[in-house]
Amino acid sequence: MAVAKCVREYLCSVVFHPLPMSGERERVLETLHAAAGEIQTCDSVEAACERTVTAAEQILEFELCSILLHDDGYLVPVALSSGAPPDGARRVPEDSGLAGKTFQTGESYAIDSVDPETDETDPAKESYRSGLSVPVGDVGVFQAVETVENAFDERDVELAELLVSHTARIIDRLRYERELKEKQAELERQNERLERFVGVISHDLRNPLMVAAGNLDLAREGNDDERLAVVNQAHDRMEQLIEQLLQLAREGRSVEDPGPVELGTLTEQCWELLPTGESRYALDDPPTVLADRDRVRQLLENLLSNAVEHGNDGGDLTVTVGGLSDGDGFYVADDGTGIDPDIHESAFEWGFSTDDGTGFGLAIVREIADAHGWTVRLMESETGGARFECTGVTLVAGEE
């Protein structure tokens, strides 16, 4: 009897009949542990599958075996045993044949007699007369075949499951690490684009604007031409756009060092600096939140300004800042004319505006909320005005 056959019998005994001899049991466990350890050290999915097939071939004596992984609706062979012919495995639809059944159900199967005429087994070669199919986690399937019937039993299924469980774990880990690296690389590319964008806005646009503004001031000295006044308004508009674009670039970055921010006090401070006219503000037990104070100040200023400017055409208005009843965040609501429900979601898009505004105010609000991990939404207030809610907010007890 071959050494591999002996090891296979030892492994069967480990699963189904505890070995009475501690030396033999230890040797079998070491063999299985060594194979699993080699699989866990692989640095690619393909290498892990190759080592798994090699272990199945050498330890379990599965001479004709393969691993198929799911890819875009198909199960695609990525590793074949050395004894398998090149055409001994082929890609199959994810819901076809025994491989598809195994992948779809997540269950293992041992087929005693393969029927080439049935779709359930669908062997790659007509000479295959029995088969074994085991799911590799939720990413693929391990299969072994033989040219004779009744080549596999439940013990073989158990052993194959033990082996490929390690493969499934390393594949999950490798794919997670790859996705993490891809996201990190994309984040770095986005940050590089952001830095270039900020540079263009703050220098390449502002510098010629300052030159134009300086010359405009000289031209307006002693000259009341209305066309120069229009140019001056255009310059002010451009400066406002630049400032808000820079705010969008800054506020979108994640918050790294949040602290307690008492929204009631901050609301009072924001209101004092805003041109609020006849409007008033009210506090409805606003909470203390864990956040970046400067960014939350910008968020509140934008929401308060939006209410005053658009809530009632600059007339009498009350804006209320308070905590949500479920303790999940806070709200800013007004008793003005409200916002058309059809544009509630569009209101947060860059450049969206229903009048001559920049269209960046609410976009900045969403960027600040996203940077904190919050969700901001727009709805109708109880009085028919606009109500903005920030949820997913971490609240803290006490004062600042």
Describe this protein's structure.
The protein has 400 residues and is of the alpha+beta class. Helices cover 48% and strands 18% of the residues. It has three domains: 3-178, GAF domain (Beta-Lactamase, 2-Layer Sandwich); 183-251; 259-396, Histidine kinase-like ATPase, C-terminal domain (Heat Shock Protein 90, 2-Layer Sandwich). The chain has helices at residues 3-16, 22-40, 45-58, 97-105, 154-220, 226-251, 263-273, 293-310, 361-372, and strands at residues 64-71, 74-80, 92-93, 109-111, 130-136, 140-146, 259-262, 280-284, 288-291, 318-323, 329-334, 375-380, 386-391, 395-396. The strands form three sheets. The protein has a six-stranded antiparallel β-sheet with strand order 3-2-1-6-5-4, sandwiched between helices. It has a five-stranded mixed β-sheet with strand order 8-10-11-13-12. Strand 12 and strand 13 (386-391) form a beta hairpin. Helix 1 (3-16) packs across helix 5 (154-220).
Tally of structural domains: 3
Distance between the termini: 78 Å
Instruction: Let me know the number of strands.
Output: 14
CATH class type of the largest domain: Alpha Beta
Elements, N to C (H/E): HHHEEEHEEEHHEHEEHEEHEEE
List the uncertain runs.
Answer: 1-22
Named CATH architecture of the largest domain: 2-Layer Sandwich
Q: Estimate the global geometry from the Cα principal axes.
A: elongated
Radius of gyration: 34 Å
Mean pLDDT comes to: 81
Main features:
400 residues; alpha+beta; Beta-Lactamase; Heat Shock Protein 90; 3 domains; six-stranded antiparallel sheet; five-stranded mixed sheet; 9 helices; 48% helix; elongated
